[in-house]
Structure prediction request, 229 residues.
Amino acid sequence: QLQLQESGSGLVRPSQTLSLTCGVSGASISSGDYSWTWIRQPPGRGLEWIGYIHHSGNTHYYPSLKNRVTIAVDRSKNRFSLRLNSVTAADTAFYYCARGGDFWSGYPFFEFWGQGVLVTVSS
Amino acid sequence: IVMTQSPATLSVSPGERATLSCRASESVSSNLAWYQQKPGQAPRLLIYGASTRATGIPARFSGSGSGTEFTLTISSLQSGDFVIYYCQQYNNWPQTFGQGTKVEIK
Prediction:
Protein backbone atom coordinates (compact mmCIF):
# COMPACT_ATOMS: atom_id res chain seq x y z
CA GLN A 1 0.00 0.00 0.00
CA LEU A 2 1.35 3.39 -1.01
CA GLN A 3 2.20 5.68 1.88
CA LEU A 4 3.35 9.29 1.87
CA GLN A 5 4.99 11.07 4.78
CA GLU A 6 5.80 14.77 5.03
CA SER A 7 8.75 16.03 7.03
CA GLY A 8 10.45 19.35 7.57
CA SER A 9 10.53 22.45 9.69
CA GLY A 10 7.29 23.41 11.39
CA LEU A 11 8.38 27.01 12.03
CA VAL A 12 9.77 29.37 9.43
CA ARG A 13 10.73 33.02 9.86
CA PRO A 14 9.11 35.60 7.58
CA SER A 15 11.04 36.19 4.34
CA GLN A 16 12.85 32.86 4.76
CA THR A 17 12.40 29.64 2.80
CA LEU A 18 9.97 26.86 3.68
CA SER A 19 11.40 23.40 2.97
CA LEU A 20 9.49 20.12 3.14
CA THR A 21 10.13 16.59 1.97
CA CYS A 22 7.65 13.84 1.12
CA GLY A 23 8.91 10.32 1.59
CA VAL A 24 7.23 7.67 -0.53
CA SER A 25 6.96 4.04 0.57
CA GLY A 26 5.16 1.06 -0.88
CA ALA A 27 5.97 2.01 -4.46
CA SER A 28 8.76 3.50 -6.51
CA ILE A 29 8.42 7.16 -7.36
CA SER A 30 9.97 6.28 -10.74
CA SER A 31 7.26 3.75 -11.56
CA GLY A 32 4.46 4.98 -13.77
CA ASP A 33 3.71 8.53 -14.78
CA TYR A 34 2.10 9.86 -11.64
CA SER A 35 1.80 13.47 -10.52
CA TRP A 36 3.63 13.87 -7.20
CA THR A 37 1.86 16.81 -5.67
CA TRP A 38 1.92 19.42 -2.92
CA ILE A 39 -1.32 20.90 -1.59
CA ARG A 40 -1.81 23.24 1.35
CA GLN A 41 -4.63 24.26 3.65
CA PRO A 42 -4.55 27.31 5.94
CA PRO A 43 -6.02 26.39 9.34
CA GLY A 44 -9.81 26.37 9.17
CA ARG A 45 -9.85 27.11 5.46
CA GLY A 46 -10.01 25.35 2.11
CA LEU A 47 -7.51 23.48 -0.05
CA GLU A 48 -5.03 25.11 -2.39
CA TRP A 49 -3.02 23.17 -4.92
CA ILE A 50 0.67 24.22 -5.06
CA GLY A 51 2.19 22.13 -7.81
CA TYR A 52 3.28 18.68 -8.93
CA ILE A 53 6.21 16.87 -10.48
CA HIS A 54 6.87 13.84 -12.65
CA HIS A 55 9.79 11.57 -11.81
CA SER A 56 11.52 12.96 -14.92
CA GLY A 57 11.62 16.36 -13.22
CA ASN A 58 8.91 18.03 -15.26
CA THR A 59 6.72 20.30 -13.13
CA HIS A 60 3.50 22.28 -13.04
CA TYR A 61 3.00 25.09 -10.53
CA TYR A 62 -0.07 27.00 -9.40
CA PRO A 63 0.15 30.37 -11.17
CA SER A 64 -0.03 32.60 -8.10
CA LEU A 65 2.83 30.72 -6.41
CA LYS A 66 4.92 29.98 -9.45
CA ASN A 67 7.55 32.65 -8.78
CA ARG A 68 8.27 31.37 -5.26
CA VAL A 69 7.93 27.59 -5.57
CA THR A 70 10.34 24.83 -6.49
CA ILE A 71 9.38 21.17 -6.44
CA ALA A 72 12.13 18.62 -6.97
CA VAL A 73 12.35 14.84 -7.09
CA ASP A 74 15.05 12.58 -5.66
CA ARG A 75 14.55 9.19 -7.28
CA SER A 76 17.47 7.60 -5.41
CA LYS A 77 15.77 8.31 -2.10
CA ASN A 78 12.23 7.82 -3.38
CA ARG A 79 11.06 11.22 -2.30
CA PHE A 80 10.16 14.66 -3.56
CA SER A 81 10.46 18.07 -1.99
CA LEU A 82 8.93 21.53 -1.77
CA ARG A 83 10.69 24.84 -1.38
CA LEU A 84 8.69 28.04 -0.99
CA ASN A 85 10.74 31.20 -0.63
CA SER A 86 9.99 34.67 0.73
CA VAL A 87 7.30 33.34 3.03
CA THR A 88 4.82 35.50 4.93
CA ALA A 89 2.16 34.77 7.53
CA ALA A 90 -0.22 34.01 4.65
CA ASP A 91 1.83 30.88 3.94
CA THR A 92 0.97 29.41 7.34
CA ALA A 93 -0.87 26.20 6.54
CA PHE A 94 -1.05 22.45 6.71
CA TYR A 95 1.04 21.15 3.85
CA TYR A 96 0.11 17.84 2.29
CA CYS A 97 1.87 15.72 -0.26
CA ALA A 98 -0.26 13.55 -2.48
CA ARG A 99 -0.15 11.34 -5.54
CA GLY A 100 -2.26 12.27 -8.51
CA GLY A 101 -2.96 10.60 -11.80
CA ASP A 102 -1.15 10.57 -15.10
CA PHE A 103 1.14 13.58 -15.44
CA TRP A 104 0.95 13.65 -19.22
CA SER A 105 -2.78 13.32 -19.84
CA GLY A 106 -5.06 15.94 -18.37
CA TYR A 107 -4.85 17.15 -14.82
CA PRO A 108 -4.89 15.03 -11.69
CA PHE A 109 -7.18 14.29 -8.85
CA PHE A 110 -5.59 12.93 -5.70
CA GLU A 111 -6.11 9.40 -4.41
CA PHE A 112 -3.25 9.07 -1.93
CA TRP A 113 -2.33 11.70 0.66
CA GLY A 114 0.21 12.13 3.40
CA GLN A 115 -1.02 12.99 6.89
CA GLY A 116 0.06 16.61 6.52
CA VAL A 117 2.39 18.87 8.46
CA LEU A 118 1.63 22.28 9.95
CA VAL A 119 4.05 25.01 8.96
CA THR A 120 3.82 28.28 10.84
CA VAL A 121 5.43 31.45 9.56
CA SER A 122 6.30 33.63 12.50
CA SER A 123 9.18 35.61 13.92
CA ILE B 1 -12.46 28.09 -12.93
CA VAL B 2 -14.29 28.95 -9.72
CA MET B 3 -15.94 26.08 -7.89
CA THR B 4 -18.84 27.10 -5.65
CA GLN B 5 -20.21 24.67 -3.11
CA SER B 6 -23.59 25.02 -1.45
CA PRO B 7 -24.71 25.19 1.18
CA ALA B 8 -21.72 26.17 3.31
CA THR B 9 -23.26 24.21 6.18
CA LEU B 10 -25.86 21.46 5.91
CA SER B 11 -27.78 20.27 8.97
CA VAL B 12 -29.08 16.72 8.66
CA SER B 13 -30.27 14.08 11.11
CA PRO B 14 -28.44 10.75 11.35
CA GLY B 15 -29.93 8.20 8.98
CA GLU B 16 -31.28 10.82 6.63
CA ARG B 17 -30.09 11.78 3.17
CA ALA B 18 -27.66 14.61 2.48
CA THR B 19 -27.39 16.37 -0.87
CA LEU B 20 -24.36 18.60 -1.49
CA SER B 21 -23.96 20.81 -4.54
CA CYS B 22 -20.93 21.98 -6.48
CA ARG B 23 -21.16 24.44 -9.34
CA ALA B 24 -18.38 25.29 -11.80
CA SER B 25 -18.08 28.73 -13.38
CA GLU B 26 -17.63 27.00 -16.74
CA SER B 27 -17.93 23.48 -17.99
CA VAL B 28 -15.56 20.90 -16.51
CA SER B 29 -17.15 17.99 -18.39
CA SER B 30 -17.16 15.05 -15.93
CA ASN B 31 -13.72 15.84 -14.51
CA LEU B 32 -14.94 16.41 -10.99
CA ALA B 33 -13.82 14.79 -7.76
CA TRP B 34 -15.24 14.82 -4.24
CA TYR B 35 -13.22 14.53 -1.05
CA GLN B 36 -14.15 14.00 2.59
CA GLN B 37 -12.05 15.57 5.32
CA LYS B 38 -12.31 14.61 8.97
CA PRO B 39 -10.84 16.85 11.69
CA GLY B 40 -7.08 16.56 11.92
CA GLN B 41 -6.86 14.33 8.85
CA ALA B 42 -5.96 14.67 5.22
CA PRO B 43 -8.76 14.68 2.67
CA ARG B 44 -9.92 11.29 1.40
CA LEU B 45 -10.97 10.77 -2.20
CA LEU B 46 -14.61 9.69 -2.43
CA ILE B 47 -15.62 10.19 -6.05
CA TYR B 48 -13.85 10.90 -9.33
CA GLY B 49 -15.13 11.27 -12.85
CA ALA B 50 -18.19 12.89 -11.23
CA SER B 51 -19.76 9.52 -10.38
CA THR B 52 -17.14 6.78 -9.87
CA ARG B 53 -16.55 5.75 -6.28
CA ALA B 54 -12.92 5.47 -5.24
CA THR B 55 -11.57 2.20 -3.86
CA GLY B 56 -13.18 1.22 -0.57
CA ILE B 57 -15.83 3.96 -0.55
CA PRO B 58 -19.23 2.75 0.68
CA ALA B 59 -22.15 2.64 -1.71
CA ARG B 60 -24.07 5.21 0.34
CA PHE B 61 -21.85 7.85 -1.31
CA SER B 62 -22.86 8.69 -4.87
CA GLY B 63 -22.01 11.44 -7.29
CA SER B 64 -23.82 12.81 -10.29
CA GLY B 65 -23.76 15.66 -12.77
CA SER B 66 -21.70 16.97 -15.66
CA GLY B 67 -20.79 20.27 -17.20
CA THR B 68 -21.27 22.86 -14.46
CA GLU B 69 -23.64 21.25 -11.96
CA PHE B 70 -22.66 18.39 -9.68
CA THR B 71 -24.15 16.65 -6.66
CA LEU B 72 -22.77 14.44 -3.92
CA THR B 73 -25.45 12.39 -2.19
CA ILE B 74 -24.98 10.52 1.06
CA SER B 75 -27.96 8.22 1.29
CA SER B 76 -28.06 7.51 5.02
CA LEU B 77 -25.79 9.58 7.20
CA GLN B 78 -23.69 7.80 9.76
CA SER B 79 -21.80 9.39 12.64
CA GLY B 80 -18.49 9.56 10.77
CA ASP B 81 -20.08 11.39 7.85
CA PHE B 82 -20.61 14.64 9.77
CA VAL B 83 -17.49 16.34 8.46
CA ILE B 84 -16.40 18.59 5.57
CA TYR B 85 -16.67 17.78 1.88
CA TYR B 86 -14.78 19.41 -0.99
CA CYS B 87 -15.20 19.24 -4.73
CA GLN B 88 -12.33 19.66 -7.17
CA GLN B 89 -12.34 20.19 -10.92
CA TYR B 90 -9.47 18.72 -12.90
CA ASN B 91 -10.62 19.58 -16.40
CA ASN B 92 -9.05 23.00 -16.77
CA TRP B 93 -5.75 24.57 -15.79
CA PRO B 94 -5.22 25.18 -12.93
CA GLN B 95 -7.31 22.58 -11.17
CA THR B 96 -9.31 24.16 -8.36
CA PHE B 97 -11.17 23.19 -5.21
CA GLY B 98 -14.48 24.39 -3.86
CA GLN B 99 -14.57 26.08 -0.47
CA GLY B 100 -16.21 23.11 1.22
CA THR B 101 -19.54 22.08 2.72
CA LYS B 102 -19.72 21.16 6.38
CA VAL B 103 -22.30 18.52 7.20
CA GLU B 104 -23.44 18.84 10.81
CA ILE B 105 -25.83 16.94 13.02
CA LYS B 106 -29.30 18.41 13.13
